[in-house]
Task: inverse folding
């Protein structure tokens, strides 16, 4: 699906997800928008990433719409400074996850409509489980074919 080097993923690669009616699953998650800066959206972002790392790893694609889990449109994201957004999200990962995630890659794909899409490649972690520690939180997340779920003891 997206097994090529992350920096070779382009608009055509993303449109193939739509054309082939690729569904979200254990290793793929579609998001229409980037997470905002409020606490709730930050916790949700960290939960999404740690759930993937605690499972087998995978990709989160921002800027793609889904319907019933299927990729249906690529409207993209209107972002003035993609590098600043990447740094913002990577900073949240550095300060809101324990133990720290190693090997997360982020790539911006410029789209023909002037917008862009952001792909995060999260490796399956050898130091799992990772927990979300943002602002006093202490929750562990996993992921299966239906999405993320809280790991409880």
Result:
């Amino acid at each position: 699906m997206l097994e090529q080097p992350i920096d070779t993923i382009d608009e055509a690669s993303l449109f193939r997800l739509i054309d082939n009616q690729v569904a979200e699953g254990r290793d793929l998650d579609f998001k229409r928008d980037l997470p905002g800066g409020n606490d709730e959206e930050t916790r949700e972002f960290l939960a999404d990433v740690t759930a993937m790392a605690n499972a087998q790893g995978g990709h989160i694609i921002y800027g793609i719409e889904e319907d019933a889990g299927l990729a249906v449109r690529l409207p993209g994201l209107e972002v003035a400074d993609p590098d600043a957004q990447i740094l913002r999200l990577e900073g949240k990962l550095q300060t809101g996850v324990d133990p720290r995630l190693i090997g997360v890659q982020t790539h911006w794909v410029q789209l023909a409509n002037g917008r862009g899409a952001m792909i995060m490649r999260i490796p399956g972690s050898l130091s799992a489980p990772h927990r979300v520690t943002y602002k006093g939180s202490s929750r562990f997340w996993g992921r299966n074919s239906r999405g993320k779920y809280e790991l409880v003891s």
About this structure: The first strand starts at residue 28 and ends at 31.
